[in-house]
User: What shape does this take?
Amino acid sequence: MNLSPKKVLVIEDDESVRFIISKVVIGAGHQVTEAVNGKDGLSILADSTFDLIITDLMMPELGGEELILEYRKREQELFTPILVLTSINDKDVLVRLLENGADDYITKPFNAKEFKARLNVLLRICNLTRMLNKQSDDLRKSKDEILSLQAQLLQKERIKVRDSYQATAFDSLVQPIATIKMILGIIERENSLARISSLKEEVIRLEKAMDSLTKINIDKESTYSEDIKMYSKDKD
Assistant: This one.
């Protein structure tokens, strides 16, 4: 995998060692920013992002281990590997560094070819990790978009069903009302007051049911079964 130029932060208090590290990194085709100790390095990291951090372990003001712990607390969006340079060969210390957030280490004095190889491995890991994270984010966004589209389609289908029921309900209610009104005219001519009163009440109930159908609130998910229950209750 060919790597495009990456941004590398080199944190080393020894000027001569810092010069050698920077020379190897630049020779590998990458950009270098230098810091003279851990405190200086954290200050730079607060304002800039990098593809790799190379830090010495033993430094004045703030050592490499403390820098790693502090940086891993701050780090959020982008994964950035950390390579530690150390003259310490104590396995317990080296294991602790890895457990605390370092991704690799190399002991001093180091071989330039080995250093370059480890550098490129960590940069490839960084590149692949960020690609996977981006793909994961894209999949989450796609999932959210699909769920949103499903909700819109379901809402449209619910409106279509409601409108269909509404049309059917009107068809079933309009004709009985017209018939009742016609009968009322006949009864009125025959002066049957008891029947007139009963039929008028029936018309009022039917008209209320029709009025409720026109006021169905989609947001509150009103259903025709509720309206029919209301009508039946009034009738009882």
User: Anything to note?
Assistant: Helices lie at 15-27, 38-47, 64-74, 91-99, 112-190, 193-213, 224-235.
